Amino acid sequence: AKSAGGAGWALYDAERDGREQARQELSAAIPAGxxxxxxxxxxxxxxxxxxxxxxxxxxxxxxxxxxxxxLRPDKFIGLAEETGxxxxxxxxxxxxxxxxxxxxxSTSGQPPYVSVNLAVRQVRRPGLVQEVRSLLRRTGLPPNRxxxxxxxxxxxxxxxxxxxxxxxxxxxxxxIAIDDFxxxxxxxxxxxxxxVTELKVAGEFVRGLRTPEAxxxxxxxxxxxxxxxxxxxxxxxxxxxxxxxxxxxxxxxxDAGQGWHFGRPASPDHILARxx
Length: 276
Ligand code: C2E
Ligand code: CA
Ligand code: CA
Description:
Layout: H1 2-28, H2 30-35, E1 39-48, E2 54-65, E3 69-71, H3 77-83, H4 86-101, E4 113-117, H5 120-124, H6 128-139, E5 146-151, H7 161-171, E6 175-181, H8 189-193, E7 198-201, H9 215-230, E8 234-237, H10 243-252, E9 256-257, H11 268-275
Parallel strand pairs: 2-4, 4-5, 5-6, 6-7, 7-8, 8-9
Antiparallel strand pairs: 1-2, 1-9, 2-3
Protein name: Diguanylate cyclase (GGDEF) domain-containing protein
Domain EAL: 23-276
């Protein structure tokens, strides 16, 4: 048994080394992938729960890897954050999203805003505000058509830098959303200190709605909504998969929904067709 255990450990280590090597190779391939145009964005609708209109779309990055096929962000975003390559990759996402969103005008109604995920490192890096400002100037996208999604972990620092950067961005007229709200550890003080416009409530609070076990989720959602509305913030519920959930969320007072019920992430052409 002892030797089997030993062999097991040896096997485990080899496997882990292999995985680690694969991760490093993947990470090292990001800059070349960017150069060769292997990354692209899908967009997912953010839909009003009041009238069903398209309020915005979230940009979600994908990697058409020459050998591994299309990779979801879960496969490479964490890596890019660890290595710092997220600054380069995230910069590309931001620019591409603004470039594509400029064309989304409609003859009737408000054109949707584009919502872009920002990694912790991107917000903490000096120069973000300048980057965004020149991007808006270059593309001509009005600031109120750009939303930046940050997570609670972005605010878990004693540094003043992220707060200053986000204030400057909000002063430009850009919308700021807290992503996956309710899943991180944080105090709520940043809601007071930051010019946040929207809370995106994580899908895990939505999933069980309308089942008897979800009474607690429903109460949590209802209190999040009243907290948000008291602070003049809108609430978007993520992971809405059924009409029943959407109806419950509307009754609870959520403003917007995102999820398969309203539309899966889709190509820019699909989004454009939907706007027209
Ligand atoms: P997220 O920001 O929470 O994005 C929502 C994720 O939920 C997306 O997965 C989306 O496809 C998925 N989703 C949407 N509707 C439903 C639904 O009804 N049910 C379920 N089960 N899932 C749904 P995706 O595209 O795989 O993205 C995963 C995560 O990767 C994102 O989570 C975000 O944290 C990160 N990510 C994506 N693009 C970027 C980016 O450009 N920069 C950074 N820093 N992170 C990104
Ligand atoms: Ca997000
Ligand atoms: Ca989210």
